[in-house]
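ESCALATION

Customer reports they have been waiting on this structure for their group meeting. Please prioritize. Original submission:
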Amino acid sequence: MRNNLLAVKEQAKRLERPILAHINHPNFHWSITAEDIAHVMEERFFEVYNGHPGINHLGSENPPRPGDEQIWDIANTLRLTELDGELLYAIASDDSHNYHGRDVKPGRGWIMVRAEKLNPDTLVHAIQAGDFYASTGVSLDSVNFDPKTNILEIRITGSDDKGGKVTTKIHGTLRGEEKDPAKVGKELASYDTRIIRHQLTGKEWFVRATVTSENDHPRPSFSGQKQKAWTQPVMPTAK
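Update from on-call: job pushed to the front of the queue and completed.
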């Protein structure tokens, strides 16, 4: 992975163009662990959701294996507490192989990017800055983190999810709890409103939000899948 990413970096430098590379479906054939991802310091992006039905998004109970969201939290906790690394950002994709006749369909996952212009370089620069969120159907009006006040504000639209109920859960790892696997990426707060203003205390290594709609995904890749959105993790200003 490191060799590939270094080759991409070299090509971007040679072409004088930003190039984005990411780790895809880490649980496909259980191929990549959170520890693997954490130690590949050149990597900043991985798929928290991939629409292929065979990628084991939810993990496994027997043998016990973390789901994609847990992998994300474990990797970020290791990076911040042990490796002095940068945060890992998450994307969603549909991984569509066929448009007709098979179950690897388009339209299952994507990212929404906040950029000044709709051109490739500007979009890639915005993604590299973490100015985007991943989605499987829930749309957000805005996501903003103010490092001066340590407030994470999320505004959720009602168009894509038909105005149904949404629940936003704030996950993160607290300082002093990073060695307890049960507390890595634990739920810190929950909201059922469409405007969330979550106050960070400064005791968190990082926090992120998962917004889940009560509505089913129209093209599910696993049983019981709901529409979701994932915001990127943020680090508070310590108090």
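Sent to customer with the following note: The chain has one domain: 2-230.
Escalation resolved.
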